[in-house]
Specification:
alpha/beta; Spore Coat Polysaccharide Biosynthesis Protein SpsA, Chain A
């Protein structure tokens, strides 16, 4: 069995799923792929089943409905850990995360990092085909989260990541309660609090060609509100650590 599991959550991604799975398998032939489908009404799950039937390294986890990105990843992490995978990868289904860049992320994990972030906001990283307002929103969201939560990585909201089984065991998934956009920040916040080694590797994020983004202004605002509450809750501990230095 492969040591690395690439997790691809899907909801109405029938125009993207076959292509992204093929690219993952071509770029990293030694990994397994788990498609996590939230009962997509467009038939994404059926396409994923066909891919799994024709490739021993592709698996499908069907869920009853759409209950959020965090919920999907939580279920997938548990699925992977139960089967002994050493590295678990988060990857979007729409092609915005390039599978061809995955070997660089895996190399950082092999070098000892517990959590590897595919980063848009460090030298060598970037975005393509994004309007200026969306880049500004993403940069501002990362900066705000970094400041409020005391995080050091530059790109704390990105969703292209490698986590080791050790890291997930240290984080305690049951303590990561966010289900939507804030899940990525929540997970990273718990990783930092657990003292895990976090490394950023530059990636180029490419806007999707097919389908619609799941991101809305309301989702972003809700995530930032949660970040604010987490920051307030963590403030006493941060102050104590500074006073004890």
């Amino acid at each position: 069995m492969a040591e690395t599991l690439v997790i691809i959550p899907t909801y109405n991604e029938r125009r993207n799923i076959a292509a992204i799975v093929a690219r993952v398998r071509a770029a990293t032939p030694d990994v397994d792929v788990l498609v996590v489908d939230d009962n997509s009404p467009d038939g994404t799950g059926r396409i994923a089943d066909a891919l799994a039937a024709s490739d021993h390294a592709v698996f499908v986890l069907h869920r009853a409905g759409k209950t959020g990105l965090g919920s999907a990843y939580g279920a997938a992490f548990r699925w992977g850990l139960e089967r002994g995978y050493v590295r678990l990868v988060e990857m979007d289904a729409d092609g915005s995360h390039q599978p061809e860049q995955l070997p660089a992320l895996l190399a950082a994990a092999d070098a000892g990092a517990d959590v590897v972030l595919g980063s848009r906001w460090i030298p060598g990283g970037g975005v393509e085909n994004w309007p200026a307002y969306r880049e500004l929103l993403s940069r501002a969201g990362s900066a705000y989260s970094r400041i409020v939560l005391g995080l050091s990585p530059r790109d704390v909201t990105g969703g292209y990541r490698v986590l080791t089984a050790r890291a997930l065991g240290s984080i305690r998934l049951e303590d990561v309660h966010s289900q939507g956009y804030g899940f990525q920040v929540d997970l990273l916040f718990h990783a930092a609090k657990a003292g895990l080694s976090i490394v950023e590797v530059p990636i180029t994020f490419i806007e999707r060609r097919f389908g619609e983004s799941k991101m809305t202004g309301g989702i972003v605002l809700e995530a930032m509100a949660r970040v604010t509450l987490w920051g307030i809750g963590a403030l006493p501990g941060r102050l104590r650590r500074r006073l004890n230095r």
